[in-house]
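Quick one, probably user error.
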């Protein structure tokens, strides 16, 4: 594999991650990628008119996106006269990563000096990795307008805050398994008031007034009469109100809107450390949000790059990126929602399919759930399964779980392995140690709404859910190759039919597979001039 190509592709990935501090920006950047490649944007609130040979995309909640291409009729009709196309090739990943969400009324004044931000955990991060590194705030705001309300993306693109750790002199157990408290230990330092050169003017409130030198002791002074007590309480309340909204002034300035017009926010902390390639031969990448933007970017890039060549395939390629995988997917824009189901039904209805045909198409469809996997850790090799031990830069990982945390079974795993062989992409396997509970994925959640055969895969990585993770540079390229060069759509049902021996058959994407002769037949198709697009469906480790 050409080293320069690997370097260039991963620089693009790291730039994408840097410009995608959270799910809202990731989806906005994917939409731009699709716009630049002549995909047409659809809106859920409008009627859809779809044309053969065209590409489309639709977003939900600004944080999930589904793109698809309609094949041209000439080849498709020959493959499936009844339905026009044989099924859907679906690839899915997720746009979110563990972080800290900014609570409403976020400012907390400490000792009449510091202002810290009140946050809560989003997802299951390694909390200690968020300490002592530059952070900022990004997300979306809802703004009052003359016509109603509108949403705006906002990113404070500078080092804005930090979560300082406690000195070891004050907590001697820091290196002995300290348990981090999200409400106490993980609130970022944001500002300081009452210092020389700082006018303290946050949100129009002058916090340097001498009356703001209030303490709990003064309010409890028994010598105060009722009137004085009420006045002091009013001043304290006004100060609290000013400080708790301290962030809004900064957000309003960045967004270019009056502070009073900001009606609500969805804001998150993000790590400001930029991604990098490292290692003796630049074989590793390090960055925040590798889980799961590495898979999301690679699958979308491969999907777009295949778009000019696969218009005559027998099934519809679909690329999904869902939000909220890190918190269970049970939102209107998550994998457990109706989003994918709604999109597939609207495609079918646009081409006159009835409910009977829709169910036939689902039976003949395939999903790849793409969410990163755990690689063997160089310092903790004992944490990996004894016989399934993925390594960085050694290929795409197929995930298995007996309790169906992952969707992979023998059929879907076998099909995916053969596709990887034909695309010249190496494959590894991941299974949890039997005495360690693993994570879950969006694949088995998405298939509860759209019941299709599915496989869970991922790219191997280290330090999953850290604020700064590590993955293999070559693996990024492997997934792009698979998405761009997938072989499934090469397989023609009618061509396969003559080979059947009456033994085990399996229908997928309008293709009939026969176990004993499949390998020989597929080998003949390796250099078939028809391009292929194989969509993945994101999963979780």
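Nope, works fine. Designed sequence:
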């Amino acid at each position: 594999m050409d080293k320069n190509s690997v370097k260039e592709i991963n620089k693009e990935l790291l730039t994408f991650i840097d410009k995608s501090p959270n799910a809202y920006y990731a989806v906005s950047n994917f939409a731009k990628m699709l716009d630049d490649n002549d995909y047409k944007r659809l809106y859920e609130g409008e009627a859809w008119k779809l044309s053969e040979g065209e590409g489309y995309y639709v977003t939900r909640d600004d944080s999930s996106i589904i793109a698809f291409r309609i094949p041209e009729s000439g080849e498709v009709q020959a493959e499936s006269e009844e339905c026009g196309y044989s099924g859907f090739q679906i690839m899915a990943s997720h746009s979110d990563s563990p972080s800290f969400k900014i609570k409403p009324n976020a400012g907390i004044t400490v000792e009449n000096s510091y202002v810290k931000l009140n946050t809560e955990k989003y997802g299951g991060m390694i909390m200690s990795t968020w300490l002592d590194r530059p952070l900022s705030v990004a997300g979306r705001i809802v703004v009052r307008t003359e016509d109603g309300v509108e949403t705006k993306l906002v990113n404070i693109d500078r080092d804005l805050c930090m979560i300082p750790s406690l000195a070891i002199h004050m907590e001697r157990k820091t290196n002995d398994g300290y348990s981090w408290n999200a409400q106490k230990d993980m609130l970022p330092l944001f500002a300081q008031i009452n210092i020389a050169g700082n006018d303290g003017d946050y949100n129009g409130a002058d916090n340097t007034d001498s009356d703001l030198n209030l303490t709990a002791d003064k309010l409890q002074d028994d010598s105060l009469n009722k009137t004085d007590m009420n006045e002091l309480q009013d001043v304290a309340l006004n100060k609290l109100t000013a400080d708790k909204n301290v962030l809004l002034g900064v957000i309003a300035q960045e967004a270019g809107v009056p502070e009073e017009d900001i009606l609500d926010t969805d804001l998150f902390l993000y790590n400001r450390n930029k991604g990098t390639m490292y290692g003796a031969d630049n074989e590793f990448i390090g960055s925040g949000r590798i889980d799961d933007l590495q898979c999301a970017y690679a699958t979308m890039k491969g999907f777009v790059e295949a778009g000019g060549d696969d218009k005559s395939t027998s099934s519809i390629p679909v690329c999904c990126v869902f939000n909220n995988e890190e918190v269970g997917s049970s939102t209107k824009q998550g994998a457990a929602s109706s989003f994918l189901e709604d999109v597939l039904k609207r495609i079918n209805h646009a081409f006159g399919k009835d409910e009977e045909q829709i169910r036939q198409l689902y039976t003949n469809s395939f999903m790849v759930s793409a969410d990163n996997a755990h690689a063997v850790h160089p310092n903790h090799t004992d944490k990996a399964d004894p016989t399934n031990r993925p390594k960085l830069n050694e290929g795409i990982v197929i995930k298995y779980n007996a309790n169906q945390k992952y969707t992979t079974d023998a059929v879907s795993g076998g099909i995916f392995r053969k596709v990887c062989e034909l695309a010249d992409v190496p494959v590894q396997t991941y299974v949890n140690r039997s005495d360690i509970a693993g994570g879950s994925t969006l694949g088995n959640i998405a298939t509860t709404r759209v019941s299709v055969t599915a496989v869970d895969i991922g790219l191997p990585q280290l330090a999953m859910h850290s604020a700064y993770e590590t993955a293999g540079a070559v693996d990024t390229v492997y997934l792009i190759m698979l998405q761009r060069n997938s072989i499934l759509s090469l397989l023609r049902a009618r061509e396969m039919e003559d080979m059947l021996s009456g033994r085990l058959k399996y229908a997928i994407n309008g293709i009939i597979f026969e176990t004993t002769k499949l390998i020989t037949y597929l080998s003949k198709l390796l250099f078939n001039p028809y391009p292929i697009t194989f969509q993945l469906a994101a999963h979780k480790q």
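Confidence is low (pLDDT under 50) at residues 74-83, 200-220, 487-541.
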